[in-house]
Amino acid sequence: MSWKTPPPPKNYQGGFQVDLMIKDLGLAMDVSQQSASAVPMGSAARSLFTLHKAKGNGRLDFSSLMRFYQDKEGE
Fold first, then answer.
1. Where are the domains of the chain?
2. Alpha carbon distances (Å) from 11 to 1, 34, 56
3. Which residue, of 1, 26, 67, 73, is most buried by count of CB atoms within 10 Å of its CB?
4. Residues sharing a CB contact under 8 Å with residue 40, sequence separation 6 or more, in sequence order
5. How far apart are the first and last CA of the chain?
6. Locate the 3-hydroxyisobutyrate dehydrogenase-like NAD-binding domain: which residues (predicted)?
7. What is the spatial distance between Cα 64 and Cα 58, in angstroms, rounded to a whole number?
């Protein structure tokens, strides 16, 4: 995998928590249902962030989702 910039270190503490991302994605999904708009990637993103939160990462910056993929590479 090639990066233009390196991924953040594992202890990166940014400013937009996974919990908030899940909340915002939920709001977006609600609006999409009200307007009968399909947003399959929104649903997929919410599922990934929910899984990441279930592993105890809800208070981390949303970019910490990269850990999920790094951990899977090592398995």
1. 18-73
2. 21, 39, 14
3. 67
4. none
5. 16
6. 9-69
7. 10
Type of residue numbered 57? N
Is the pLDDT at 68 greater than 90? The verdict is no
Task: Say which residue the tokens 């399909």 belong to.
Answer: 38
Q: Give pLDDT, residue 49.
A: 95
Q: Is residue 42 pLDDT above 70, yes or no?
A: yes
Cα distance between residue 30 and residue 14, in whole Å? 27
> Is the entire prediction scored with pTM above 0.85?
no
Q: Are 59 and 18 in contact (CB under 8 A)?
A: yes
Express each pLDDT in 13-37 by its tens digit. Answer: 668 999 999 999 999 999 999 999 9
Structure tokens at 31: 């609006």
Distance (Å, whole) CA 25 – CA 72: 24
